[in-house]
Amino acid sequence: MMLLRLLPLLAALASSALADVAFTSPAAGAKIQGGGPISVAWRDSGYAPALSALTSYQLFLCAGGNDATNHIQLAAIMTQGTFAAGNVAQRTVSAGIGGSTENAYFLKMISVATQGGTITNFSPRFTLTGMTGTFPPNVIAGMATVQGTDGPPAIDAIANAPVAGGAAGAVQPAAYTVPYDLQTGLTRYAPMQQVPPTKITKKVPTPLFPTSAYTIATTPMARPTVVTTLVLSRTFSLSNRENTAAPVAQPTDDMAKFLARWED
């Protein structure tokens, strides 16, 4: 009887699992010679959203902890992949991009859904041996917090289905954290504009973000592929109040005579 009561709950949990992409290679805990090719393979996990509901993807090699603040992208395995082209990818990465810490590395795949938005999946952890580089301090600290071979949890930023009344659901904030030039699809997402500070402290202006790569057009270019850019809604509020201080009296000295000249 108790099992029958649990079945609907288990089915609901399975249908909402964020595991559409299941990585099959590299295997969890695998050791791969650094400086050589990294072969990646994946399959449909059987949970929503299905691979058939995804269009394109970007695939990156990462290292560090499971929190977004303590892991980094080290190299791009594929920047313009399509699921229609298959479920494998391969690229050779330099041995100098990081160290050989055990299970320091994992893969990050950002997939674009046909209904809009993205979902980000992470592979199990593996080791690159014979590496000649080093990791930043925050990445090393992030590794120390990891136990086992699980990568970070998936990030669901797929556009929600319409809710009652016909209004579309809000996109998850994670969609706005993907760098703009790494996004694909008809809809792109931009972060919230920063609030101006109340005091200027910098003496030398410095850019907030690195410059973007560009190509000078020498022939007519193709039509733009981005239809809509959504900007994250502001999360702060403003309040106003009346200034109740009494106004300063008009001058009565020579300044009053000077001001009176302009009344004509």
Automatic annotation (TrEMBL):
Cellular component GO terms, alphabetical: extracellular region
Annotated keywords: Signal
One GO BP annotation of this record: cell wall biogenesis
Signal peptide range: 1-19
Positions of the Yeast cell wall synthesis Kre9/Knh1 C-terminal domain: 174-254
Yeast cell wall synthesis Kre9/Knh1-like N-terminal domain residues: 25-128
Name used for this protein in its record: Uncharacterized protein
Organism: Cryomyces minteri
